[in-house]
Amino acid sequence: MAILILGLVLFLGVHSTRIVADGWRSATIARIGEMPWKGIYSLLSIAGFALVIWGFRAARADTLVLYTPPVWARHLAALLLVASFILLVAAYVPRNAIKAKLHHPMVLGVKVWALAHLLANGVAADVVLFGAFLAWAVLSYRAARQRDRANNTVYPAGTASMTALTVVIGLVAWAAFAFMLHGPLIGVRPFG
């Protein structure tokens, strides 16, 4: 569990600089340049992510069951993950109404992803992993919305065609991951 926690501290810590030290982040980028910042950020993120994966696999092998979710929670989690994938895609498809309305769909997608997994999994390693991501996403979304208000950020209106494209790509990505990739990559087959 210690490796998982170390990985979460590193990965989420790097991703929290805009939440807790936005001024320091801006000053550091101004001092060293954007590309060196992105390089350091990426290396630390990759190291943290690798530790999260390694630590999670190790912690799942020998961990405590904190609660046993009811069967319906797995079905609700699958439905929430459809929304999560659509939100994640909405962060990247330009001029979609989801991003225009919600402003930070990727962070909302992480919130929904984490919540869905907490509903469906009651093992300590799962609670630590998904609970940490949920807490980070709540704080990140709050900070991003505060920055938007402070900067009077206006998001471009979405179009029906780009919104439809966002939903279709999100559904296809969810289906591919749920039915084909989750088992081989994560070791759990959500649908049998």
UniProtKB/TrEMBL annotation:
Membrane topology: Multi-pass membrane protein
Subcellular location(s) of the protein: Membrane
Domain spans labelled NnrU: 3-190
Segments passing through the bilayer: 40-59, 71-93, 113-139, 160-181
Main location: membrane
Cellular component, GO, one term: membrane
Keywords, in A-Z order: Membrane, Transmembrane, Transmembrane helix
Protein name, per record: NnrU family protein
Organism, scientific name: Ramlibacter lithotrophicus
